[in-house]
Amino acid sequence: MAEQKQQIEEFVPSEYSAGFVTDIEADSLPPGLSEDVVRQISAIKGEPEFLLEWRLKAYRHWLTLETPKWAHVHYPEIDYQDISYYSAPKKKTDGPKSLDEVDPELLRTYEKLGVPLEERARLAGVAVDAVFDSVSVANTFQDKLAEEGILFMPFSKAVKQHPELIKKYLGSVVPYRDNFYAALNSAVFSDGSFVFIPKGVRCPMELSTYFRINAANTGQFERTLIIAEDDAYVSYLEGCTAPMRDENQLHAAVVELVALDRAEIKYSTVQNWYPGDENGKGGIYNFVTKRAACRGVSSKVSWTQVETGSAITWKYPSVILQGDNSIGEFYSVAVTNNMQQADTGTKMIHLGKNTSSTVISKGISAGRSENAYRGLIRVGPNAENARNYTECDSLLMGDTCGAHTFPYIEVKNPTAQIEHEASTSKISEDQLFYCKQRGMDTEDAVSMIVNGFCKEVIRQLPMEFAVEAQNLLGLSLEGSVG
Amino acid sequence: MKQLTELTTSFTSVADSIDLPGQDLSWIQEIRQQALAQFNQSGFPSKKVEDWKYTSLWELTQLQFSHLVEPVEVSEQHCEQLALLEDAYRVVIVDGVFSADLSKLTSLQEGLTVGPFSQSLERIQQQLGKQVSIEKEGLTALNTLLMKEGVMVHIAEDKIIDKPIELLVINTGGTDNLATHLRNMIVLDDNAEATVIEHYVGLTDTSCLTNVVSEVILAEKAELFHYKLQQESDNAFHIATLAAKQATGSQWHTNNINLGAKLARNDIHSQLFGEQSHTTMDGLYILDNEQHIDNHTRIDHFVPNTTSNELYKGVLNGSSHAVFNGKVMVHKDAQKTDSNQYNHNLLLSRNCEIDTKPEMEIYADDVKCGHGSTVGQIDMDQLFFLRARGLDEVTARSLLTHAFAVEVLERIPSEHIRKALSNVIEQRLPRGKK
Question: Does the CB of B47 have a partner CB in chain A at under 8 Å?
């Protein structure tokens, strides 16, 4: 117990621990968005013609769209002309060839965040493709992955080296017409990660990316594309932090996953972006489109997310279950405190035969925050024997926060078996009493009960992430119980 | 929005030409004027409105409805057959017109006042329209503009009314595309208790529109058992809004059984304003062929220590389409709310569709709220169990379907009413076919 307490205290400076600004010269475009900006971004990155065309189509489509208003979140309107759409750490040479050449300032940043780069990476068995603002800085374990034929590289590099794959898969799961933020992202995305696992390969290590929004006023628009060919397996981790800034920063990412026959993709996120201060000043707007397509038979995609940061979260990792016998999973913990707002959930679209999906969502709200689960389970007319189980539980701490559930269930096939269950409760006096009677203080007791409440989800995370996630939970709820 | 105006004028233009009650009362004229302005502004809801996402009124808006009735005689004997209960006070409305002859309103128990809406306007002046919102619902505005008949029930303080009150609304089908706009007011004073049954019957398969708004006011510790049985014709549009305001310690038990109509929509709204108040919302829908039903329920827990139970079940056959949207709102400070809500659906055929959405919005922490919804089919194990005991497949399926459906009647305390409803349901259930 003492050890755990110490661990928590380590993580409990009452201020946001990742809130430091790295002082690096950045190449930025001036704020504003126009066709010229889109062309400029594309030119800076030296992209082939087809991609520029695609970006422009997305931009023109975006112009016709209106900001979606249906989510249970409130914020002042965003001025999209007031954002800088490109920021890259200034290059000293043509690009780092090894870790030694990477800006030491950057490395220190990662060190503070505890990213296992360098030797620690090898020990932890994690290959990191760290996205520092928009340009990937260092890739580790490239060689080892290359041996297996796995491609794990920055998106911009993939565009140059494997344009045929990008052409084939980009926008095939999340088309640029999908929604407002996806269109915006498609027009101006700066960089991201690209993963390709060839047929029959089981990725030998967890792939990991750390996103970090650094320069002030830059929206981060990364784009991730993961393709697992027949019988391939990959587990991908994504961690996010942002320094503390007063203005709200926009983050509109797109993640596309494609799983072919019998392939499996496991995508885990720990999102710890700056949530703003107690009065709701500052913080990240996290408007993300994440979607997976289970194209092949017996393919499987599993989303796991622990969301503790961001001022506003608007995110619905989804799975389109096209292949027969395919499986979709969604495990989520969303914690909101102070003035945070989260509207998150999933969509499971059953199209193939014998498809099944599981949704476990845990929402914890404290302070004056709002936490909503919004989910859709859709069973198409040809999806014989579809099976879904959904459970969403909310835990409320304090009488000024809100917890909401909006589950949509649409069934067009009589062989479907759909179950949805939701409950809302608070930490009971009995549970607290039990813990305190055994000598724990309230804070520890709450942390333990919350961790117990989320165990089903945390358990899905890879080991290192699970530890971080547990600590984050305790940290986010600091001071929320009197 | 030009199109919308065209759609609404077919209704608004009749407001001047038909004989609406209360022409000489300025307050009701004022209400109707407001409703007219509101309806012109909002019109019929489109599928873009979240609450109408799965239900389209397009077909309804394409029809030219008539507001002039050609009277059709319904015999006393026929009426007796149609009624759900034999031994009850009865208010009968035929094609939107109150029938004093068919109604059974003699020797009313002391403390009970029942009468047709058109003759009770002055009594309900203070309460009319206070339980519903014309701003939010275009159809409620339309009803307010054209409301013509309905029933007014008032129970005085401390009175317990033994006999149920049945409101029997008969659509004879004598007039093509007849539109009736009904308004019911049910008011229970402190400690009063009553049972009211709203019963809608269609006699032929002529197309018609029933647009009904029922308002309920429950004073302290009042208790109302409020049932609805909808057996409209296969080509009927049935739009119903049911809203109650509840004071301290009051109890409102609703049961909403829908068997008929081509398109039925129920908006049921309970507003718990007093502590220790309680709402039960149970319901059943049994659909076949092209039928479409949309049940939207909403329970607002405004104050601490209130409870609600909700159970809606559906049996879908043919290419029918059912929509369920249940919303439980626990407002700030409504601590110790205890609420549960369930929606279960049984799909029997290839082409049916169900869209269900149980929602919760919670702004208080010390609450116990749960909800669940399921979609499934007849359990093979249960079927096997019955078959192993010698029942043929059709009988076994019928038995299981019936058992599934009648669960919603379990909370009805009166055995008499429960049996009557159970019989009606049994006749309507699809015979299990292989």
Answer: no
**Which of B17, B137, B162 is closest to B87 using CA atoms?**
B162
Residue B311 belongs to a domain = no
Whether B355 sits inside 8 A of A426 (CB atoms) is: no
End-to-end alpha-carbon separation of chain B, Å? 49
Distance separating alpha carbons of residues B63 and B111, to the nearest angstrom: 44
Binary contact (A394, B362; C-beta < 8 A): yes
Contact B355/A410, CB-based, under 8 Å?
yes
For chain A, the first-to-last Cα distance in angstroms comes to 21
Indicate the helix (H) or strand (E) that contains A195. strand A193-197
Yes or no, beta carbons of A405 and B359 under 8 Å apart = yes
A423 to chain B: which residues are within 8 Å by CB? 369-370
- In tens, the pLDDT along B328-345 reads 999 988 999 999 999 999
Domain total of chain B: 1
**In terms of CA atoms, which chain B residue is nearest residue A429?**
B366
CA B251 → CA A402, B111, B248, distances in Å?
27, 19, 9
B340 touches chain A (CB under 8 A): no
Helix (H, G, I), strand (E, B) or coil at A276: coil
Whether residue A409 and residue B50 make contact (CB cut-off 8 A), yes or no, is: no
Closest CA to A249 of A222, A289, A276, A209: A276
- pLDDT tens-digit profile of A417-471? 999 988 888 888 888 899 999 998 888 888 888 888 888 888 888 776 777 777 7
Cβ count within 10 A of residue B340: 16
Q: State which residues form the domain around B158.
A: 11-274
Q: How far apart are CA B161 and CA B355, in angstroms?
A: 39
Partners of B315 in the β-ladder: B286, B346
Q: Give a yes or no: residue B159 inside a domain.
A: yes
Residue B74 lies in a domain: yes
Which among B348, B353, B369 has the least Cβ separation from residue A411?
Answer: B353
Task: With beta carbons under 8 A apart, name residues in chain B contacting A390.
Answer: none
In a domain, B77, yes or no: yes
Measured between CB atoms, does B373 come within 8 Å of chain A?
A: yes
Q: Which of A379, A406, A424 sits opposite B357 (nearest CB)?
A: A406
**pTM more than 0.80:** yes
DSSP letter, residue A100: G
Contact A424 B50 (CB under 8 A): no
Nearest to A407 among B352, B357, B366 (CB): B357
- Name which residue leads in pLDDT, A410 or A282: A410
* Cα–Cα distance measured from residue A232 to residue A321, given in angstroms and rounded to the nearest whole number: 17
Closest in A414, A424, A426 to B360, CB measured: A424
Q: Cβ contacts (< 8 Å) between B368 and chain A: which residues?
A: 424-425
The reply to whether ipTM tops 0.95 is: no
B56 touches A: beta carbon within 8 Å: no
The amino acid sitting at B188 is: L
**Tokens at residue A182, please?**
């996806």
Say if CB A346 and CB A319 are below 8 A apart.
yes
DSSP string, B204-262: S---EEEEEEEEEEE-TT-EEEEEEEEE--TTEEEEEEEEEEE-TT-EEEEEEEE---S
- Residues sharing a CB contact under 8 Å with residue B18, sequence separation 6 or more, in sequence order: B67, B68, B146, B148
**Nearest Cβ partner of A405 from B332, B360, B364?**
B360
| Lookup: tokens for A7 | 């661990």
How far, CA to CA in Å, does B2 sit from each of B9, B15, B36, B54, B138? 11, 20, 17, 23, 16
* Contact across the interface for B367 and A426, Cβ inside 8 Å: yes
Contact (CB<8Å) B363/A401: yes
In order, the DSSP letters of A96-158 are -SSGGGS-HHHHHHHHHHT---HHHHHHHTEEEEEEETTEEEEE-SHHHHHHTT-EEEEHHHH
Handedness of CA A261, A410, B349, B381 (dihedral sign): positive
What pLDDT does residue A96 have? 47
